[in-house]
Amino acid sequence: MTKIYKWAKLDFKMIGTKELLRLVKEEKLVENLSQRELEDPEGTGFDLRVGEVFKIKEGEAFLGETERHTPETESIADYENNKEIILKPGDFVLVKTMEKVNLPDTIAAIFRPRSTLQRCGVGLFTATAAPGYSGELTFGMCNLGKNNFKLEMGARVVHILFFNTSENHSTYRGQWQGGRVSTEGETETQV
After folding, report:
1. How many domains is the chain partitioned into structurally?
2. How many CA atoms lie within 13 A of 141 on its CB side?
3. In a domain, 65, yes or no
4. Could you tell me the CATH number of the domain that includes residue 103?
């Protein structure tokens, strides 16, 4: 017999593209979307594009209970200069989106890699975006395959899905607000 818990009755629904396009227009939910996404988004969210790629420099990294530091980074490609990069097998980079999200207090987002990446042997490491987050998004990308992988700036690499949330205690207050990529080797106290 299946047991139904009281909390299971909460109604968490993915927000459809009709409502998302309204929120983009009226509330700037996502800024700098491509024409493709503004005119005819596919599925239940939006595809986001690579705007800049960073390599992680040599150095120490640390994640503790209250403090952290990430290694310094260096921009190696960006959309404005119309560059492309080649990831050799084993290469790991950080990719930052061209788009900026502006999540209200009642909407969270999750991310799924586009399946073309998997078909090329490339992994995209994503997280969530909490209600209240505003900024570009940064993901890890690693060529896990056996072949070189050419990545063009402006390519669609990740699909963002939006959900209404219920009864949030607080909104995002982390230090990555605004799209920051790294602590640049500096130790900071986590909030």
Report:
1. 1
2. 30
3. yes
4. 2.70.40.10
